[in-house]
Design goal:
The structure is a homodimer of 373-residue chains. The first copy, chain A, is 40% helix and 25% strand. The first copy, chain A, has 373 residues and is α/β, with parallel strands linked by helices. Among the domains of chain A are: 1-57, no CATH class; 187-262, D-Maltodextrin-Binding Protein, domain 2 (3-Layer(aba) Sandwich); 289-369, ACT domain (Alpha-Beta Plaits, 2-Layer Sandwich). A five-stranded mixed β-sheet of chain A has the order 2-1-3-10-4, with helices on both faces. The two termini of chain A are 34 Å apart. The relative contact order of chain A is 0.12. At the A-B interface, helix 1, helix 2, helix 3 and helix 10 of A face helix 1, helix 2, helix 3 and helix 10 of B. Chains A, B: Pfam families: ACT, CM_2, PDT.
Chain lengths: 373, 373
Amino acid sequence: MADQDAPKPVNPDNMDLADLRDEIDRLDGEILQLISRRAQCALKVAEVKMKAAPDTAVFYRPEREAQVLTRVMERNIGPLGNEDMARLFREIMSACLALEKPLEVAYLGPEGTFTQQAAVKHFGRWVHSKPMPAIDEVFREVEAGACTYGVVPVENSTEGVVNHTLDSFINSNLRICGEVELRIHHNLMAGPNTQRDKISRVYSHQQSLAQCRKWLDAHMPMAERIAVNSNAEAARRVHGEWNSAAIAGEMAAQLYDLDIIEHKIEDAPDNSTRFLIIGTQDVGVSGDDKTSVVVSMRNEPGALYHLLQPFSDHNVDMTRLETRPSPSGNWTYVFFIDFAGHVEDVNVRQALDEIRKKAVEVKVLGSYPKAVL
Amino acid sequence: MADQDAPKPVNPDNMDLADLRDEIDRLDGEILQLISRRAQCALKVAEVKMKAAPDTAVFYRPEREAQVLTRVMERNIGPLGNEDMARLFREIMSACLALEKPLEVAYLGPEGTFTQQAAVKHFGRWVHSKPMPAIDEVFREVEAGACTYGVVPVENSTEGVVNHTLDSFINSNLRICGEVELRIHHNLMAGPNTQRDKISRVYSHQQSLAQCRKWLDAHMPMAERIAVNSNAEAARRVHGEWNSAAIAGEMAAQLYDLDIIEHKIEDAPDNSTRFLIIGTQDVGVSGDDKTSVVVSMRNEPGALYHLLQPFSDHNVDMTRLETRPSPSGNWTYVFFIDFAGHVEDVNVRQALDEIRKKAVEVKVLGSYPKAVL
């Protein structure tokens, strides 16, 4: 048993098949014991938390998970890739957490979308996930307490739903508790009876068509490009047509029984989509955090420049800014700003204090760990 | 580092939150090292196999995986359940195997069906899975070598496709390499605007309606029961109707945006569906195996009794027998027989030798490990 003996490092190069299998069995026994002990510690953590605050104990701590995964990736020496190893640990954490109480997570459905993939990527397989038909319903489900967290796309290069998510925050008290990034690949797909050289139409969301423009120019210059509402919609249409193709993710090909004619046709190789985890929780400092705020401004000359000044003064690195018309009136604007750092950081606090003096309203949507995986 | 120090067992009962987290971090470091070493051994196993047989090396060994999982469940002391622990090890093995070459697996689609769930349950998340529109196309995909394995339902209490799978074996040289069991729950579901007391129709596959008869008699005695082709089809129909409900699995509710009105309404609590893993591989002895054979018989008086005699004589435990008309002619029958044991077991070999003398043809579909999870 691992408790009695110090583990003996073995050089697998000098072993035959039977020895290697014995070694794997021995390693499995140790891994098993350690995972059991980890689960015991996790239960104990829950118990300590419950004793301290029976009504408000929070078992899932995004900042803590981010730290664990970051450390796993730093310490990993292979041969498994960092992402693979982090995924295994995500599942171990997910299983340990579910011992106490499985997380209930609402996401923008239907099943099989990238948002569901994002939910599983973030929370692991032990999560209970529930598809909702619209973004505001994901918000409502979490506000009502039916689910502890929600997952919504925010910078979605393919479905064009960013504004919907941003606008939902304006009328909601939910916080951002985390973010997930998924690499998105575009594929050209068609029904099984479609011949490649007969394709005269390519359907997709407008942004996906734009993201594959060079490939289409080079390989299908004559095909008409038709923009539709979503990539899933494009795949659905193509399902019944013999002379058309769709650009969409692999999942859409699976859902609509299409064959992928060409993989990864996007012009930019690192096309990715960002999702937010929403909830009611204030997330602590993980050490590598992001903060999102909404700022309402009067439409005055130089307003935006003045707004941004404190960020620069206090060395706060702004990563994104979106402007939206305010729902409250004709002459105000709302800015969604993402920057590096946590509201508990001194420089962030100082910058926000100054911005509060200039703005009509500043609402912190949340500080949360940067996407790890 | 774990290499230098013997692991110190710690009693989590005497620790505060910070200590517990330190302990978890320490455990994670050890788990990480051990998983890395396991992956190294797995790579080495592949290398040894390649050296011995460069062209025919087989990296995935179902009997070996079954043994590993069985041992994990035997050695598990909690607090994680045996199934949870085995699932984590399934993922660890899946990741290690994918290091060498990710498995390509065809399954009866579309995505989101129980068969896909079975494929992931059996092969883990690192598998590449490909949905096929029909059972015989799963067979063809594996025969053509495009996928190494296929997953098809064989005793499906809800979709009624058993015969299709059995018949496919008659004209195929594929073997059975494994089986998967999924517990299937039936749920009553309806659109979000449907009131429970307004439901006047319940759609489902005939077998699912039968499996929920007592519940329906007790709770919806007045609702008309309408049998349709599959449970997914039932859910699809209900999607647009305000006064009807469907009986189907949770995935169907997600796919068609229905709310589950009542979970687990099946009369028998352990309703499960069985899937087969098909491939070209002969699977070795795992120690807890099953064998499937097809036997062709002339239609003579007492034929079936004579056929079965050797099983009883040699203490071979028959677990299932299906009779199908033979495709080759009017007066012959084909029997699909499952029994406990492996073709390499002495008693099994003796029984089969005797059966061969009596039958027109005996074809061994495969010996494979019993479903572990």
